[in-house]
Amino acid sequence: MSAAPDPIPLWLVAELTYTCPLHCPFCSNPVDFAQRGTELKTEEWQRVLREGRELGAVQLGFTGGEPLSRPDLEQLVAQARQLGYYTNLITSGVGLNERRIKALREAGLDHIQLSFQDSTRELNDFLSSTRTFELKRRTASLIKAHGFPMVMNCVIHRLNIEHVGRIIELAEEIGAEYLELANTQFYGWAFLNRAHLLPTRKQLEVAELAVEAARARLGDRLRIYHVISDYYENRPKRCQNGWGSTFIIVNPDGTALPCHAARVLPGLSFPSVRDSSLRDIWLHSDAFNRFRGTDWMAAPCRDCPEREKDLGGCRCQAYMLTGDSHATDPVCDKSPLHERVLDIIARAPQAQPSRPLIFRAPDNSLRLGGTAATAE
Amino acid sequence: MDETSRHAIPRIARLYRFQFEPAQNAFVLLFPEGMVKLNDTAGEILRRCDDQHTAAEIVADLERAFESDEIGPDVDAFLAEATQSGWIEWRAARERT
After folding, report:
1. pTM score, whole prediction
2. What 3-state DSSP class applies to A143?
3. Which residues form the domain of B27?
4. What domain count does chain B have?
5. How high is the ipTM of this complex?
């Protein structure tokens, strides 16, 4: 029996709602979001926040959907701040006005992460299916005027990767302290739309040069995080810093997950904060223990000298690409199925999607959720 | 002004929040979506960077607390490093409120 201390869930991610004014076709929400149960009430979230803090969580993300669609957001932020969390609001900016930002400031909100879908109005508005580009720019001014640290987030994919240089300039213009260039990972809606979204290797190489040039130019003025698609790596990333090691994600209906996409995995039932305490869920639930550490591994992970480093990679990716949730993440070049990933990226330059982009919208969710929706 | 002069007053920078975390038994610096867990020495120095005391006063207080008169250079080195990392900001003592 190892004497390692129990891990602490340093991060609690509170997905307050699946309601969202945007319809991005790479959304990380589950495809079946419109078929899920009722949202947790204010008092239920208040209990979750208390229990999370007792477990040692210190970073708290309010996200969704669009968390500003919950009228009790300010109340939850105030309680979270009082409990000692560092509170992050992860938002599209839609719904943030002078009145609400003042209330959030008074409630003690620490930081705002604002999403853009592109540096151009045309593509931003096309991808989100909204006319929000100018609104987002105004929201950024509001965030700065109220003195919040601001992270700008832009999901990067085949359709906007050639704008990376311009996206970095946009982050400079709006005064962001950090920029996250989060290349699409292929789960949920992005998996359905992979043929549209997976960049080519050439595109990725050009984007990486643009990022390097900008870093050299900007120094500490703007910190740029550029996370590339796992498909272009030859070693996998840890799942959420390690399954059940750092993160608890609570869905709008109270389902607790070790990672955003985990509900795609077969044979696992995920606990609800409506039935159990967060402590029980973290320490004792089958779901949070199933892929914790290295005991679950099969070959080649089991015998790999790097097994502690990446912990076998992403379970959802392994399942989605191999049909086996215990398999080595096939983005690893030691995986016997690594060829599958190479085939997918080799096809990217010629990709001719046979169907249009599927936008994240309730009608598409009702139609496709629960079916074995597949990438092309 | 020499930023890390003993006569200037340091404070935790705007992007960071500094607090003690019982679950980790350590002081931490929190920032957007991230955290630095501090060792005991760093924690003891940063908890004194309260926008009220000069570096000289912080050194004197640490020397009293730890009954040593040889820690000045270590504190200076840490404060320089913390400035470099963007964790602390400085103002001149004459602006003291």
Report:
1. 0.94
2. helix
3. 3-85
4. 1
5. 0.88
